[in-house]
Design brief:
This protein is of the alpha+beta class. Helix content is about 45%, strand content about 15%. A hairpin with a 2-residue loop joins strand 2 and strand 3. Helix 1 packs across helix 5, helix 6 packs across helix 12 and helix 6 crosses helix 13.
Length: about 325
Amino acid sequence: MTEPASPAFASPPWRHTEDGEIRRLGLELEMAGIGPEDMAAAVTAEIGGTVERKSAFHTRIHDTDLGDFEIELDADLLKNRGYQKALADVGINLGKGQAREALESALSQVAGLVVPLELVAPPIPYTELDRLDKLRLRLHQAGARGTHASTFYAFGMQLNVEAASLKGDHLLAMLRAFMLRYDWLLERCKVDFSRRISPYVQAYPDKYCEHILNPDYAPGREQLIDDFLAMTPTRNRPLDMLPLFAHIDENKVMAAPVETDLIKPRPAFHYRLPNCQIDEADWSLATAWNDWVAVEYLAADSKALRQALERRRRPGGLLSKSLHWLGRRLGR
């Protein structure tokens, strides 16, 4: 059976960073129905590399054409071997060797029923995204299962999109454009119910949205970060800004009441909203990427962005329904 042709990947309005480098994109894909060995085989078949099995929960593929990939069971207790402490507390010390490997193999198989395997791709130039989509197709053909395959699968696709600029006005424009496009993104993504009720992609609080979308709000970069940490101090948003803010001022972010152990500083927007529909033949990575690019085009058009902000403020103007959508569905 011939697979449907993948849609083209759109070019963003800002194609380079301030240093003149082509902007890069990191990718995280959560899936089930496929083991780490088959996942690693799909990676090496498409882009080469050498497989290193670090444990039943963690595999690394070195030296591919695009960089190093990670395959991880998305459960910190297992991935970091936190279960060993629990066993040690009752006098069981597995150490190393066959006993531990057998237990970890069994734990991995059981956990895989509800906990996804995650493929973590390194940051690559956005111009190479079609190569990642070919890898997506190989995983699809190998039997990978996505969000809609089970009511237990709250699986997502996360994009780590390198910021074109770290200046405060650029970051503010991106946040505003994302909030203004949020209702459209929700419709486009068709966020699965299992993910809507999870804590990981909860909508920004209304108070923060009103604050950011006030046309008179003109903070410097430090004030923008301070306000974010004061009003929405969590990574569990559809657009997680904490890795980017930590890249700018790690000490400030890590001193805030946020999930410090999960934040990895990097100069990228962490877009967490899309499902992973890898088992659906007509799905492509281009869908979520092109939606993100639409957000960027609004941010890049200062006139259109300003007009959108002013329309919200007019007497009798309608507040974007999207800002309340998840809260209403959750009874908040």
